């Protein structure tokens, strides 16, 4: 767990580059998404600046108190908890989460846009470390969400003891063939969030984290062969079919971001109430629609380690499985 009791103004702060959320390398090349292995245990238990637990889940418009409580385990060795939800039903999910985590953490901030919601929790007494907290939202498509469920993003900027973080939870366009629409929505959201009054929060962040139902699918494979590969635990070959990684390689989205290796099973689409993939007449191809990606500003003086990246198969009230990550930050050493 990070040193929550010893947060101070970081002396390591250097002047930040004014780089945007989406960028190319200094030589003009595309970096794509860097895939990293998972560190089984957080190495920074004594030297970390901050440890963050991040959860994304498409609730499919259904409320299960039991499943909401399962999102937060009893092992809460993190300073901050970020929960991004999509297709949230009209009920008080916030109250359930707060009651579940009340013993160790308190609600620091939240933002909603119809069925999109995000909550930020911090360890008890952590409120005093908040120097600035801003929220924003950006709708895309569907006449601003008037027709059908609103797509888009809600976001939160927080300066927590001098560490500047942006969290974005989003829900992008559905269906396999709408790749370019998803790319466009990502670009629009990236450029629009926190753009009011000319305050470039997303540009000055030390770390930016995107979580949500990005809706990128597997492409070039039908449902039965895909399911057979999943049963045989051949996820590495399936990853080559993932639209998000393909589009990032082209420099279209999430350039320079990092993601853990996709070793868990695709998180969509399940029969509600089970861990069996879609048996409707559509027999949808399983896909990793639900993702968590992060980007550390090179000039921030920080390094990040991803000590877990997993889906929660025990949650079954939705046609999506939640995805959970544990991210720890530390000051970069001179050797690094």
CATH level 1 class label: Alpha Beta
Please give the largest β-sheet.
6 strands, mixed
Please state the structural category.
alpha+beta
- What integer is the average pLDDT? 87
Q: What is the domain tally?
A: 1
Portion in strands: 25-35%
- Oligomerization state: single chain
How far the N terminus sits from the C terminus, by CA atoms, comes to 22 Å
- Write out the CATH superfamily name: Endonuclease/exonuclease/phosphatase
CATH architecture: 4-Layer Sandwich
> Which topology does CATH recognise?
Deoxyribonuclease I, Chain A
Task: Describe this protein's structure.
This protein has 336 residues and is an alpha+beta fold. The chain is 17% helix and 30% strand. It has one domain (29-331): 4-Layer Sandwich (Deoxyribonuclease I, Chain A), CATH 3.60.10.10. The chain has 8 helices and 13 strands. A 6-stranded mixed beta sheet has the order 4-5-3-2-13-12, with helices on one face. Strand 2, helix 1 (65-70) and strand 3 form a beta-alpha-beta unit. 46% of the residues are buried. GO terms for molecular function: phosphatidylinositol-3,4,5-trisphosphate 5-phosphatase activity; phosphatidylinositol-3,5-bisphosphate 5-phosphatase activity; phosphatidylinositol-4,5-bisphosphate 5-phosphatase activity. It comes from Eleusine coracana subsp. coracana.
Features:
single chain; 336 residues; alpha+beta; Deoxyribonuclease I, Chain A; six-stranded mixed beta sheet; 8 helices; disordered N terminus
Can you describe this structure in just a few lines?
Belongs to the inositol polyphosphate 5-phosphatase family. By secondary structure, the protein is an alpha+beta fold.
């Amino acid at each position: 767990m990070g040193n929550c009791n010893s947060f101070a103004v970081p002396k390591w702060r250097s002047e930040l580059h004014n780089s945007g959320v989406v960028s190319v390398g200094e030589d003009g090349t595309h970096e794509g998404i860097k895939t990293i292995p998972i560190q089984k245990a957080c190495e920074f238990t004594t030297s970390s600046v901050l440890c963050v637990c991040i959860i994304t889940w498409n609730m499919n418009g259904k409320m299960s108190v039991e499943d909401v409580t399962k999102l937060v385990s009893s092992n809460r060795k993190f300073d901050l908890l970020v929960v991004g939800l999509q297709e949230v039903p009209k009920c008080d999910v916030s109250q359930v989460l707060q009651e579940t985590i009340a013993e160790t953490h308190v609600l620091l901030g939240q933002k909603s846009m119809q069925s999109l919601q995000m909550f930020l929790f911090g360890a008890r007494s952590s409120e005093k470390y908040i120097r600035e907290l801003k929220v924003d939202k950006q709708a895309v498509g569907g006449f601003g969400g008037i027709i059908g469920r609103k797509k888009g993003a809600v976001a939160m900027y927080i300066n927590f003891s001098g560490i500047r973080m942006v969290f974005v939870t989003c829900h992008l366009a559905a269906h396999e063939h709408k790749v370019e629409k998803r790319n466009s929505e990502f670009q629009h959201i990236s450029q629009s969030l926190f753009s009011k009054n000319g305050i470039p929060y997303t540009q000055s962040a030390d770390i930016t984290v995107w979580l949500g139902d990005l809706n990128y699918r597997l492409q070039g494979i039908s449902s039965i062969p895909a399911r057979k590969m999943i049963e045989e635990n051949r996820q590495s070959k399936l990853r080559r079919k993932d639209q998000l990684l393909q589009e990032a390689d082209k420099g279209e989205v999430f350039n320079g971001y990092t993601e853990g290796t996709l070793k868990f099973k695709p998180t969509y689409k399940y029969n509600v109430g089970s861990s069996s993939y879609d048996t409707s007449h559509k027999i949808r191809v399983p896909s990793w629609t639900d993702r968590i990606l992060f980007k550390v500003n090179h000039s921030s003086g920080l390094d990040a380690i991803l000590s877990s990246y997993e889906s929660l198969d025990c949650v079954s009230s939705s046609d999506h499985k939640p995805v959970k990550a544990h991210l720890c930050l530390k000051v970069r050493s001179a050797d690094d």
